[in-house]
Design brief:
The chain is α/β, with parallel strands linked by helices and about 270 residues long. It has two domains: about 10-15 and about 160-260, no CATH class; about 20-150, Periplasmic binding protein-like II (D-Maltodextrin-Binding Protein, domain 2), CATH 3.40.190. Helices cover about 35% and strands about 15% of the residues. The chain is built from eight helices and eight strands, in the order E-E-E-H-E-E-H-E-H-E-H-E-H-H-H-H. The protein has helices spanning about 50-65, 105-110, 125-130, 140-155, 165-170, 175-195, 205-220, 225-245, and strands spanning about 10-20, 25-30, 40-45, 70-75, 95-100, 115-120, 135, 160-165. The strands form two sheets. Strands 5-4-3-6-2-7 form a six-stranded mixed β-sheet. Strand 3 (about 40-45), helix 1 (about 50-65) and strand 4 (about 70-75) form a beta-alpha-beta unit. It starts with 8 loop residues before the first strand and ends in a 24-residue tail after the last helix.
Length: about 270
Amino acid sequence: MSPRGDCPYIALPVFLSRAFRHTSIYVRKERIRRPEDLQGKRIGVPEYQLTANVWARAILDDDFGVKPSDVTWVRGGIDTPGRPEKIALQLPADVRIEPAPEGATISELLDRGEIDGFIGPRPPSRHVLQNNPHIGWLFDDPTAVAKDYHRRTGIFPIMHVAAIRKELAALHPWLPAAVCKAFTQAKAAALDALADTSATKVTLPFVEEQLKAARATMGEDYWSYGVAAARKTLEAFVRHHHAQGLSPRRVAVEELFHPATYETYSI
């Protein structure tokens, strides 16, 4: 739901995209040696309000004390100049955002050293990463840091959820729970297929080992659907979304999804 009440969709607790966003933070390694060094620096973003950026700022705030007001945000396209915010922002007065120079991309600014870091859902341009030895992840081993973050907090960041139109949910009260059930069944089938390594289903090596490691670290239902299993993650997100000035009030978890989807059901 939207805290402004203007969204025509109602969310379902079906979390189709999740990612630990420790890998979303790139820096000039000769200047930034630890997260706290970002204070007072200039960080590029493709858009301030992107979900990946909300999570990255939440990590910097909660774990390292770097608040959104501690840096200057420079907004621009990652590889193409002139990217605007898709949603009008009304941010706190102490949050500073400035546009990238006309014709410049965030990747170029990072390459030239005109900004100190970058946060985004995908990396800076491959050319910059391959040819500039001073640019890299903030965390040298982001996987280890993310595993520790999950162990301490129980949070597995959510990027995208499924949703249906409110008018359809009103016409068919059974529909939201039925869609959740269908997605849960589809996820179970996909995980069964992923575990069948007679012919791997993704173009990556070590699939069996990665699957075993994920379950050992996060449990058998490591990619859980449903509100109960994701409550810590949802509470953290709505808290930071409001604190970062992106929602006018802190939305309760009970407001996020269609009421019928808070119930449990059998597959």
